């Protein structure tokens, strides 16, 4: 209808009404709860002015023909209908309204609109110069609403108030809503599968439906989950990348609702897991995987959409930091290539040099291609695709492996997980612990690698945000074992056909009194020149000692070498007394490049061979290993005293204190850092820094530069070879795509939380012992009475490490075996099997004495 006709109709209903004393329109004079004083409209000019105002603000929304046709919902008419239903004690009117709205895409999408936006119904044709809709198309297009912007016609606040009001009468409407939604979802699914999909997704009101439905608590109701919720989440898989991306961007702006949405999905996934457990024998080799359960794909897929919204709604690194990290990634990649090239050039013949030059050219091309690909992706102005993980030039397999984690939606949004300090919600909120307990990661891995490229199907492997740290580690261990098997397989066939025997294992032989020197030689010459050696299973031999390494010798090797190389006497690291963690010595000698490389390789090898190291670095170290740069926030855990001082500097209020920053702090842009010897090393944060005072105007710059100096620039020469060594081992694995920095820390150092009750509850017994044997009861009584330090020594004695693996001590599966009758011999341990050999001592006092002697003298003794 024309604008003039619209004003005329409003004028008529304001002055004379519609004549229906049951009218539900509060903007109609016939309504018993008319919004205005009727006397005010005795003056036609007042009525005309208000009619013009209503037509401008609401279009045709409050015309009687729409309000009384029950085609859409608004807060006012909903309240009117509820009041009327309560008055006559008959809920038929409300039920009919609910069904007519929630069963029809056009009606629901036209509900709860903002002022100035038209409804998507066939009666509405010419109400806006910027919008158009016809009865033929059933789609409304508005130039203000596109898939490329974040504009919406939905009034979110009105919608949430209205849904909350409706839920007060849940008993009266729940069955109607359930039936209506079934019809609605079929309608939308059919339209999305038709030739009208593009028109539908570009409908100005279409996306409103998803936010309205998500607001309904029914999505978490067990009676709705397997039908209604499943049908709703299935629709998301049919949506284009463009509209999924818009949904994510809009949700990120309305992130207060995110926790509610996530709770819906987690309840859905939990219920489907329970259903799967009910019809699947988990221990069966032929049982269906949890990932094949109907509805699981849909739930995890939508959860990933919410996860992306959580990232966008969280705290992203600054554009300056992201740019620095991108440049660092490229520089480190080139440095890795150059380092290997220098080693390969030594003693290589001419043919090998030609081949290496060709490899270097291919590597450079890979970098350029990755950069070009980054530039080709439509992103935000500060978006740069991270190249740190994906620059794999020694093998094409890793590029393929990396690409499985990059989906088109993530690329469309310009998202990279490690570009965010944190999400709006904790990342753990997106991990369903119950489902993760039921995931059989080894079977999932086999199913995943057996997929045909042309017929891929859902796998949890492709959704790392959903996997628990325990399952990620299990997956990484499987991947590592597969790599080791491939290396053994390659060695076998090479020996078979060439006649030259290649060792299927990465063996190193070291002397206890020359541990670091021997380890450097073995790792440098076998590892750096032949990096494929690092993918083999590690076997350690101590010169002059008998024993076959089944895990225990490797654990002891790592333990001994870390104790030596991290000791203060070596001067490579310094210990912080406050945090009891290690950090690089900024004044370390210049000739320790090889040693830092060795330590990086040891960290990588420990992860690759599932060995926990007895070291403690601050969390920022693991962020840096993942391609991040240290920033002010990292100082809270690495340098807490300095962090508190800088935070005080930033929050200092000159007006309140009645003095200036310069007078109180007396700081300049020249600072000193204490090295491992206790000496102060001076640095200028800016040129001529000693003459530049820190003021209220430049204090933020000072904090940024000082943090950068402490965590990055002052230790750059030490960190680069360290990172290089780590990358030599891990760069061809999925480590950086699967794990967050805090999870890498757990991988390397394990958990310091030790619950020995867990150890006792999961222990197994052999050789005649049972949990009720007197010696076993005495043993646990003795162990539980130990100090924390003594308990850690026992743990190191039996397992080779005093840390707990991910999941706690219960995962160690300690095996306690009877080692003969009463004797004066000490207990021993097979650390590779977590086996503790305990003689059947005659008394608890004797058991305590022998056990203490054993654990206090464990190095080089009792470790088999």
TrEMBL record:
The keyword Metal-binding does not apply. Residues 347-357 have a biased composition (Acidic residues). Pfam families: AZUL, HECT. It catalyses: S-ubiquitinyl-[E2 ubiquitin-conjugating enzyme]-L-cysteine + [acceptor protein]-L-lysine = [E2 ubiquitin-conjugating enzyme]-L-cysteine + N(6)-ubiquitinyl-[acceptor protein]-L-lysine. Residues 339-401 are annotated as: Disordered. Residues 530-864 form the HECT domain. The keyword Phosphoprotein does not apply. Keywords: Transferase, Ubl conjugation pathway. The active site is at residue 832. It comes from the Eukaryota. This is HECT-type E3 ubiquitin transferase. It comes from Rotaria sordida. The lineage of its organism: Eukaryota, Metazoa, Spiralia, Gnathifera, Rotifera.
